[in-house]
Design goal:
It is a single chain. By secondary structure, the protein is α/β, with parallel strands linked by helices. Helix content is 44%, strand content 14%. It folds into two domains: 166 residues, nicotinate phosphoribosyltransferase (Alpha-Beta Barrel), CATH 3.20.140.10; 200 residues, nicotinate phosphoribosyltransferase (Alpha-Beta Barrel). Strands 5-4-9-8-7-6 form a six-stranded parallel β-sheet. Strands 2-3-1-10-11 form a five-stranded antiparallel β-sheet. The chain is globular, with a radius of gyration of 20 Å. Pathway: Cofactor biosynthesis; NAD(+) biosynthesis; nicotinate D-ribonucleotide from nicotinate: step 1/1. InterPro entries: N/Namide_PRibTrfase, NAPRTase_N, Nic_PRibTrfase, Nic_PRibTrfase-Fam, Nicotinate_pribotase-like_C. It comes from Pigmentiphaga kullae.
């Protein structure tokens, strides 16, 4: 089976799940899968994917895994006690062939607390099933050569002494085995320049730092959980701060776009949070705007962390590191370019929350093609409430 541990997922799933347990235990949600890569035929593999999901839903946390989670400074004992009884409910996920050629309909519906861990392993399953059927003899030699060429860009450059990259590549990896080889290589070859991984299982297995705070779904859910829509982003940050008391302080900036983020990210949040994460739009422009925002709020940007994680390559990450050197702390999360760079076209697969407590939710980032919402009327309303320009929404919202 592809997934053999419930820890084989990103850390932010657990940090968000703990907030859900303590703050929103009754919330009901819906997620929808989408493949943005055209011309991909997944219909032949639907039964294989279902079998992998069946096996995923049989998994339980082991005592070793629970002990590891309980040893993380921000994980609380009652959450570990809950996970001791946890399993993913098979009744909450459906997988079928879409009427669109080659596409799949994958839907998750149920309690947020019990379905939040589906996304990452399901996407990893879709990826690995597709690639193992289409590339029976993987180009590992090519992958190793490409990986080492990236390492060589960093190794020995004194200007990159403080350059730190992390693996963020679980959901779109070529395979679990290749993912692990990449992590071992980075640990051995990059040493202090490799800061860790978002994958909790590999962090535990290889003695690495697990990395992550919040994802888009958290702030999206707050659209249906907060007191009013306009304050949903502020509400999300306040609830997060109430849960973690200053820990895990990297705020996600692109659920409504950078302009809306900066309007809500006032002096209080500037001082409270350690920094922010970039995940759409031009990263240089984003960084410059954030640094100026800190200055306007009388915060020294040199004390703040800018995390870049949008479609990064090593050359782009290095350019960003040199551009912002000495003006702030930078960190880089690289996904597909690390874990699925073997000369094949990667799949751009996503699974996004589309409803919370029966109402639509949406993400409107600074990259229009990343917009995902089932209700165009709600999207128009969201745009009006957050003063989002029409060109930022694009034409990709689902009916």
């Amino acid at each position: 089976m592809i997934i053999t541990s419930l820890l084989d997922t990103d850390l932010y799933k657990f940090t968000m799940m703990q907030v859900v347990l303590h703050q929103f235990p009754a919330a009901q949600v819906e997620y929808k899968y989408k493949c943005r890569t055209p011309g991909i035929d997944l219909h032949p593999y639907v039964d294989e994917i279902r079998e992998e999901i069946d096996a995923l839903c049989e998994l339980r946390f082991t005592q070793e895994e629970l002990d590891y989670l309980g040893g993380l400074r921000f994980i609380k004992s009652d959450f570990v006690d809950f996970l001791r009884l946890f399993h993913l409910p098979r009744r909450c996920i459906s997988v079928s062939k879409s009427q669109s050629p080659g596409e799949l309909d994958i839907t998750v519906q149920g309690p947020w607390l019990h379905t939040i861990l589906f996304e990452i392993p399901v996407l990893a399953i879709v990826n690995e099933v597709y690639f193992r059927n289409n590339h029976l003899v993987p180009a590992y030699a090519e992958g190793r050569q490409r990986l080492m060429s990236k390492v060589e860009l960093v190794r020995g450059d004194p200007a990159l002494r403080d350059f730190h990259i992390a693996d963020y590549g679980t959901r779109r990896r070529f395979s679990k085995a290749w993912h692990e080889e990449v992590i071992i290589t980075l640990k051995d070859q990059m040493r202090e320049n490799f800061s860790g991984t978002s994958n909790v299982y590999f962090a535990m297995k290889h003695g690495l730092t697990p990395l992550g705070t919040m994802a888009h779904e958290y702030l999206q859910a707050c659209q249906g959980l907060g007191p009013r829509l306009r304050d949903s982003q502020i509400y999300g940050f306040e609830v997060w701060a109430r849960e973690y008391r200053g820990d895990l302080g990297i705020a996600l900036s692109d659920v409504y776009g950078m302009s809306a983020f900066l309007r809500d990210f006032d002096m209080y949040f500037c001082k409270l949070f350690d920094g922010a994460r970039h995940d759409s739009g031009d990263p240089f422009t984003w960084g410059e705007r954030l640094l100026e925002h800190y200055k306007q709020n009388r915060v020294d940007p040199r004390t703040k962390i800018l995390v870049f994680s949008d479609g990064l390559t090593f050359p782009l990450a290095i350019s960003l590191a040199k551009h912002f050197a000495g003006r702030c702390i930078t960190a880089f999360g690289i996904g597909t370019n690390l874990t699925n760079d073997l000369s094949y076209q990667p799949l751009q697969v996503v699974m996004k929350m589309v409803k919370c407590n029966g109402q639509p939710v949406a993400k409107v980032s600074d990259t229009p093609e990343k917009t995902m919402c089932e209700d165009k009327a709600y999207l128009a309303y969201l745009r009006q409430v957050f003063e989002i320009p029409p060109e930022q929404v694009g034409e990709t919202a689902d009916d």
